[in-house]
Write the structure tokens for this entry.
Amino acid sequence: MTPAFRTLSNRGEGPPADLLAGLDLLRVTRHGAVLHLRLHRPDKRNALSDRLIAQLHTAFLHLPEDVRAVVLSGEGDHFCAGLDLSELVERDTAAAVAHSRGWHAAFEAIQFGRVPVIALLHGAVVGGGLELAAACHLRVAEPSARFALPEGQRGLFVGGGGSVRLPRLMGTARMADMMLTGRVFDAAEAERHGIVNYLADAGEGLARALALAERVAGNAPMTAFAVMHALPRIAEQAPSEGLFTESLMSALAAATPEAQARLQAFLQGKAAKAVAT
């Protein structure tokens, strides 16, 4: 892996909170058990440079232990306009492969990390920005959000995991349409096609994303782990293997002290009621 994608070691760096504070391309705030990470390159529409990818990777490897959910958003008018193309022209083929694999490592730290991640989407959600959003577990979009994969018009192909994650959200044919024709989806179309989970009014996306994150943060950790790590793998397995994996994960989750306590609360009529989203 190239030096650009080496994440910072926690050894000698102090506690994770200090480590996160040193990431200059991310803005970090806390809302109880929820951590809010904002991409901070607004002058570049939060385009993903090597340093920003490395800092994202570092952040998700070193989340504070008491964080139970993350909201990921972009500073300024856009979520993320994709790859910083000014860096692309400087790479030969070997470096380009290493660069793509660095993105894969960073985004896998999000998708298969310790806590669920909710992406707040507005403005440009383009190319690598859409790939980043696809690595998150839930996506909230404001009306300004625009979704595109312009790689086809630039002689490129996705390199941040989009060819794996996006067809599972929207379907292969729809992704091919976006790449071949430059088709752009607005927020409502993205929600209809499965890219977005929730729509929010202009200026209300952060409140919606934080409310969802707070609800997610209240789940039992083993349940969150099962949804994040087991569910996508079960979906890829043959039915018989998937059912066996489900049985194992179900038994593990139910055996935790927190699950037992929640079951007792339910039986005693003390459990929280389900609420509409």
Remarks:
- Confidence is low (pLDDT under 50) at residues 1-15.
- The radius of gyration is 19 Å.
- Residues 3-217 form a domain with the 2-enoyl-CoA Hydratase; Chain A, domain 1 fold (CATH 3.90.226.10).
- Residues 93-111 form the longest helix (19 residues).
